[in-house]
Write a structure and sequence with these properties.
- The chain is an all-alpha fold.
- Helices cover about 65% and strands about 0% of the residues.
- The chain has helices at about 15-20, 25-30, 35-45, 50-60, 65-70, 70-95.
- Helix 2 (about 25-30) crosses helix 3 (about 35-45).
């Protein structure tokens, strides 16, 4: 799940920012960013937000993180779901006499 320099993280930040009537500079201010470039990287999907930034976006847009990063959420949900099934299967195998 760890990203590489070519990994993209599609999101709805730009769409939600525009729907909210905010400029990049204004949203950067709300997020307490020192520069707009960090926000630009997030919007373009070139950067994965920290947990703190993801929560700030959730509060700023009043939308849940999975709604802001739906593709990432689906990948994480699928990965964790598969790993949980695998874990439970392993545990069941260990219990067999």
């Amino acid at each position: 799940m760890e990203g590489t320099s070519s990994t993209r993280y599609p999101n709805k930040i730009r769409q939600l920012r525009m729907e909210s009537g905010l400029t990049q500079q204004e949203l950067a201010f709300v997020l307490d960013y020192e520069s707009v470039s960090s926000l630009s990287h997030l919007e373009a999907g070139r950067k994965l937000p920290t947990l703190e930034t993801a929560l700030k976006l959730e509060v700023a847009f009043q939308r849940l993180v999975p709604d802001i990063f739906p593709e990432l959420y689906e990948r994480v949900r699928d990965l964790v779901g598969k790993r949980r099934v695998e874990l439970f299967q392993r545990k069941a195998e260990r219990r067999k006499p």
